[in-house]
Design a protein that fits this description.
By secondary structure, the protein is of the alpha/beta class. It is built from nine helices and twelve strands. The mean pLDDT is about 95. One fe (iii) ion binds near residues 67, 70, 107 and 142.
Length: about 280
């Protein structure tokens, strides 16, 4: 069965997101751990978190994807920028232990002119400071479109980070279909080839989640503008091949398309139908 859901707003709390996901036909979802631009996290309500954890078990959800604020930069130029990112991520991970066993996705960072090699070193250093043996959350590096000085637009960059992480069982990868397409990986005409390349460079066993998005821009544009499913340059046929691909079975698929809830509901329904 396809595990699919969408990005949800966390303003009404954890259990409310779980109920909304079910109403939309989802059995997973993604949410920002805090304001995506800012830094302040709301006071966590342990009862609310426990109530979501119970719902996830009862209704057999696939792992959820908690998304770090995208302004964090583990490989920023200033030490203060890097420390802030690391402290925020460590705090997110501590909070996530109230809902054990989920995924925590983050954008690896932008090296802002320091060079890809230095960026990779700093990201790995940051992760080694953050990850803890006791945590039940797996942290995911997101594949990026490679705009500006983004790290993670090439599978090799993610592999280089993974190689430097000490706690290997706490780290994985989330593949964003819009990002890899915009990064130049042709998932429309050669999905098998791209997944073979992913397996060769990173290893498919590292892949823990998919962001299922169409793209407003053509292959290799390095833009990162998401489109609704079937309304972009990836198209519904390629997206259908993705949800049906044998190498991706069992993974949680999260939509990050420009939709309100009714639009998400339609896309979830449509992909469940097309995946059959
Ligand atoms: Fe993201
Ligand atoms: Fe994404
Ligand atoms: Zn994106």
């Amino acid at each position: 069965m396809l595990h699919i859901g969408c990005h949800l707003s966390s303003t009404k709390g954890f259990a409310a997101m779980g109920r909304t996901a079910l109403e939309l036909g989802g059995d997973t979802f993604q949410f920002f751990t805090r304001n995506p631009r800012g830094s302040r996290a709301k006071e966590l309500d342990p009862a609310d978190a426990a109530s979501l954890a119970a719902l996830l078990r009862e209704r057999h959800f696939a792992p959820l994807v908690a998304h770090a604020p995208y302004t964090l930069n583990l490989c920023g130029e200033k030490e203060e920028t890097r420390r802030f990112a690391a402290e925020t991520m460590a705090d997110d991970l501590a909070r996530l232990e109230h809902i054990p066993g989920q995924l925590y996705n983050f954008h690896p960072g932008s090296h802002v002119g320091q060079g890809m090699g230095r960026g990779i070193e700093l990201i790995a250093q940051g992760l080694n400071a953050i990850l803890k043996k006791e945590q039940t959350t797996i942290v995911l590096l997101e594949t990026m479109a490679g705009k500006g000085s983004e790290v993670g637009g090439r599978f090799e960059e993610l592999r280089a980070i993974l190689d430097r992480v000490e706690l290997q069982d706490k780290i994985g990868v989330c593949l964003d279909t819009c990002h890899v397409h915009d990064g130049g990986y042709d998932i429309v005409n050669d999905l098998d080839g791209v997944l073979t390349e992913f397996d060769r460079v990173i290893g498919l066993e590292r892949l823990k989640a998919i962001h299922l998005n169409d793209s407003k821009n053509p292959l290799g544009s390095r833009k990162d503008r998401h489109a609704c499913l079937g309304e972009g340059c990836i198209g519904i046929d390629a997206l259908t091949r993705i949800v049906r691909h044998s190498a991706l079975q069992g993974l949680p698929f999260c939509l990050e398309t420009p939709n309100e809830l009714p639009g998400y509901k339609k896309e979830i329904e449509m992909m469940r139908h097309l995946a059959e």
